[in-house]
Amino acid sequence: MNIQAIMKQAQKMQKEVMKEKEEINKKIFTETYSSVTVSVNGNKEITKIDIDKEMDLSKDDIEMLEDMLMIAINKAFEQVDKETEKRMGKYGQGLSGLM
């Protein structure tokens, strides 16, 4: 295989990788934990947080709410990681540090 063919193949793969990443970035991942629902996009940016309006919060409940938010956010981020691995894994492990 000559160098031009290798370069052409690399450019094609780069376009495919970028297309996959764009699709992941557009996708919304939603996770619910107890009375909290968190939505994030593929860039791991929080797009929405819903807290059950029926919750009767006292000062002591604030810590519990903070924990629910943290868990829901982390689980949503895990969904992004799984989707990224599923779609990008075929391009090789070395790309994960570039994304």
Quaternary state reads single chain
For the record, what CATH class of the domain at 32-99 applies?
Alpha Beta
Helix content: 40-55%
Order of the strands making up the biggest sheet: 1-2-3
The secondary structure category is: alpha+beta
What's the count of strands? 3
| CA(first)-CA(last) distance | 29 Å
Give the percentage of residues in beta strands.
15-25%
- CATH fold call of the domain at 32-99: Ybab, Chain: A
The helix/strand order is HEEEH
Q: Kindly report the average pLDDT value.
A: 87
CATH architecture of the domain at 32-99: 2-Layer Sandwich
Main β-sheet description: 3 strands, antiparallel
Low-confidence stretches: 94-99
Shape: rod-shaped
Return Rg in Å.
Answer: 19 Å
Distinct helical segment count? 2
How does this model look, in words?
By secondary structure, this protein is α+β, with helices and mostly antiparallel strands. It has a domain at 32-99: Ybab, Chain: A. It has two helices and three strands; from the N terminus they run H-E-E-E-H. It has helices spanning 3-26, 59-88; strands at 28-33, 36-41, 46-51. Strands 1-2-3 form a three-stranded antiparallel sheet. Helix 1 (3-26) packs antiparallel against helix 2 (59-88). The longest helix is centred in the C-terminal third of the chain and has 30 residues, at 59-88. It is rod-shaped, with a radius of gyration of 19 Å.
